[in-house]
Amino acid sequence: MLKRLLSLAIGANFVSSNVLPQTNVRHLPGHRLTKRACDNSASHRSCWGDYDTSTDYYNEVPDTGVERVYYLELTETTASPDGYERMAMLFNGTLPGPTIEADWGDQVTIHVRPMDLQSTGMASGRISLISTTVLHPLLNAQSPLAIHIPIRGVQSSTAHLGTTPTFALQAWEGVFGPIVIQGPTTGNYDTDIGPLFLNDWSHQTADELYFSIDNHTMIVIAMDFVPIEPFETEYISIGMGQRYDVIVTADQSSGDYWMRAVPQTTCSKNDNSDNIRGIVRFDSSSTSNPSSAGTDFCDDCDDMPMASLVLYVSKDAGSDDSESTLAVSVSSNSAGLFKWYIGGTTTAVEWADPSLLQIYNNATTYTWSNSSGVIELAEANVWAFFVIQTTNTVSHPIHLHGHDFYILSQDTGTFNSSVSLTTSNPPRRDVAMLPGGGYLVVGFQTDNPGAWLMHCHIGWHTSEGFALQFIERQSEIEID
Known about the structure:
2 helices, globular, 6-stranded mixed β-sheet
């Protein structure tokens, strides 16, 4: 029986592409490749040279001495992923954009050229940049940008590269693509069949989907670039921006089976909720539609249970050096515009003078506008806890740039001092669901200087103000 690795990601759109970006690989001077003490193979996927899945990748990483260079150009064109042609914005003319691939310990340089009339803010599913962060104020129209990413604090997983959703919803217009990092995994498999995006193409976005393959179970081995203890499930509840690595065993009799992405009606509206499907075939010559039946599930828009998301490399959260409550609400502002608020602020990014550009121009004295949604975290290596609370019945996928956050508590109802926080090896990831009419408590250590956005991953919620930014250790931010 063959076991195949499939990486799932919710982003913006989906249509397959085999077009690769212009790229080259070079060895950096003064670096040595890791000694290959063992070989990563189908029966030994946890092995990676002198390292393995038990390596504390927050503090110890390989240094391959390899730089992988990619070139991306943002263009406006037409695309028809569902058979209906419409305007789109794409990387290198493909949807999704070209796959960025690297090994754990490589350095990746991505050169980006924007369109003539649009600015772009680049973002990726979190790849650890700890102690090596180089930030850029903004990718302006007609200004190429080189992004340098050391592949440090991840092992093997899939993320997505795209634009920040606060600007013109570019990621929802097609500006995104996969990032694949090769390294050790917590489960063995025979073949890696690559990333699969689960996405809407219209703007009727479902912020939570169920993914399943009829008559098959899946072994989940990673979430949002973080290795976990493998667990078996018939379906995965996956929110906007989340990623899971799963192993599917081809153990069924020859036939055709539906692969399903089912929007949860509790938090979305979709006229074709039972018709978002692909086909898994055991016989490539078959042209038949499957007759297989789907899996029953509870429509609740919740994340996978915290008890299932056990981190392979165990880490505990520290005590809260600071704690803030961030209430989420929605209302019309004084101009009658529909706005989302978090922590009493509806964020409106100053594109002509964004935060990093302000720091770049005047690194010691500046005043943040109320609409910038800035929370300053000046002290190094302390723990910051945030209680995100809503009475609204709508669920929201909360995403943080620059950190994996620790999920300390997540439930419906009102958070209060009697709620027990999980600080012993809690789930770590960069996207988690804020339950409708409930709360999400997250924490992280201030170990990564930068300007980091935290926002709802539903694109138009972000564009309507559902975001804030942490200015972390401002005096240590390195701007190139």
